């Protein structure tokens, strides 16, 4: 039987997109405490089912699929720009596809405004009205209001009209930054993107028998299965080794390995791969926050996903990318090394290179050196910095990695950092190899 928490989540999923949700109403409808309702609504927000907006409340939104993760809803825009909603609250769940800055004549402006877009403009009432009639939402900068006629039209068309005290440049920068961050997230593949869902997974229950295991293993040609109880919560994992020598009528609960390693759906594939390699396991049950089974992933699924990621175009630069863009690879007598300048963004308040940037340089250059010997993704296990001398802004650094040891699963590299021929830092890194 589902718990009260799970019943509330299911209730929220069944609500129409755009419905307002309150703790008090949910508690009353489902006859639960307000504390239980509040915790369930917060989890629904984490799952992307609802969004909470200041001065509006909590609204049921459409859960975005992975391919649209770079898109924002108007509800999220309100939070990003610290805005407040003047009208069209029923449309806050809708998705923003592009934004247009209205810094031109009205006729020219309307050529760029179409359905699903957001017009960013000042206190130009006619532009507000025409934008809504074109199917676009409106964001008014400078903290200005709009006319009652426009507010009424926004309510009728269910298109949000939002006001923000920020200027146009600041608003556009904040929205652009949010979209850019999501482009980076889009590239990071999560377990939920590759899991075999529950309806497509093979599993046994605690009441199943060894005979059931044999029938299932014969039909799917492998012998690793998660074991769940009557509430679909993972209780164990059973393998060929576990059932060997046991009678056919023996229950799986007696032979399974209890308290198995599991993974939640919002973990990156790289992290799951690290766990599977480190623990030497072929299959991971995927669970929610209450250990209820959502599906499974296998080592083969993970390897395919990592191979797929390598073929995708770069969608956005991470901090590591920005740092390494200032360094270029060169070849010397002792192998490859990296050369670059310490920019102002890499320094701390004293004008010296920050320890975080140094760690990134060691990790990236060390991993690059290891990839000369073994193709795959390098996951740093440990970085030890022996010493670090102050390195000032605009110093030119040479980073010289030297591979000390390389095995099938692990690598060890020593990294020396020089400034004008003088060693300013020395570090050791060990990394796990995840083969592509």
TrEMBL record:
Question: Is rRNA processing among this UniProt entry's keywords?
Answer: no
Sorted alphabetically, the keyword list is: CBS domain, Hydrolase
The molecular function GO annotations come to:
inorganic diphosphate phosphatase activity
**Which SMART domains does the entry link to?**
CBS
Q: What class of enzyme is it?
A: hydrolase
EC nos: 3.6.1.1
User: Source organism's superkingdom?
Assistant: Bacteria
Q: What is this protein called?
A: Cobalt-dependent inorganic pyrophosphatase
């Amino acid at each position: 039987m589902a718990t009260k928490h799970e019943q509330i989540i299911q209730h929220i999923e069944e609500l129409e997109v755009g419905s307002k949700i309150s703790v008090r109403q949910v508690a009353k409808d489902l006859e639960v405490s307000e504390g239980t309702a509040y915790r369930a609504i917060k989890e629904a927000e984490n799952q992307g089912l609802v969004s909470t907006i200041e001065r509006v409340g909590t609204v049921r939104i459409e859960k975005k699929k992975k391919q649209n993760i770079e898109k924002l809803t108007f509800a999220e825009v309100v939070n990003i720009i610290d805005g407040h909603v003047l009208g069209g609250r029923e449309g806050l769940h809708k998705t923003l596809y592009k934004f247009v800055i209205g810094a031109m004549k009205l006729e020219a402006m309307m050529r760029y405004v179409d359905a699903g877009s957001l017009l960013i403009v000042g206190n130009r009432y006619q532009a507000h009205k025409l934008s809504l009639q074109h199917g676009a939402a409106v964001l008014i900068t400078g903290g200005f209001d709009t006319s009652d006629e426009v507010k009424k039209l926004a309510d009728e068309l269910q298109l949000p009209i939002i006001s923000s005290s920020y200027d146009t440049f600041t608003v556009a920068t904040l929205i652009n930054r949010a979209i850019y961050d999501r482009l980076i997230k889009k590239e990071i593949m999560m377990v939920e993107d590759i899991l075999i869902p529950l309806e497509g997974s093979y599993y046994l229950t605690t009441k199943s028998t060894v005979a059931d295991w044999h029938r299932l293993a014969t039909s799917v040609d492998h012998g690793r299965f998660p074991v769940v109880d009557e509430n679909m919560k993972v209780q164990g994992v059973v393998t060929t080794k576990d059932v060997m020598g046991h009678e056919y009528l023996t229950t799986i609960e007696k032979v399974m390995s209890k308290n198995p390693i599991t993974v939640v759906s919002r973990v990156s594939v790289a992290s799951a791969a690290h766990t599977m390699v480190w623990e030497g396991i072929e299959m991971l049950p995927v669970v929610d926050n209450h250990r209820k089974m959502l599906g499974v992933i296998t080592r083969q699924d993970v390897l395919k996903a990592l191979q797929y990621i390598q073929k995708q175009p770069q969608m956005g630069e991470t901090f590591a990318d920005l740092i390494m863009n200032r360094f270029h690879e060169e070849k010397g007598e002792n192998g490859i090394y990296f050369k670059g300048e310490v920019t102002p963004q890499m320094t701390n308040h004293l004008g010296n290179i920050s320890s975080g940037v140094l760690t990134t340089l060691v990790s990236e250059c060390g991993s690059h050196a290891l990839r000369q010997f073994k193709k795959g993704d390098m996951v740093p296990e440990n970085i030890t910095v022996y010493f670090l001398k102050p390195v000032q802004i605009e110093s030119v650094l040479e980073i010289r990695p030297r591979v000390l040891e390389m095995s099938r699963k692990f690598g060890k590299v020593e990294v020396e950092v020089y400034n004008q021929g003088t060693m300013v830092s020395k570090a050791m890194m060990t990394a796990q190899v995840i083969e592509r």
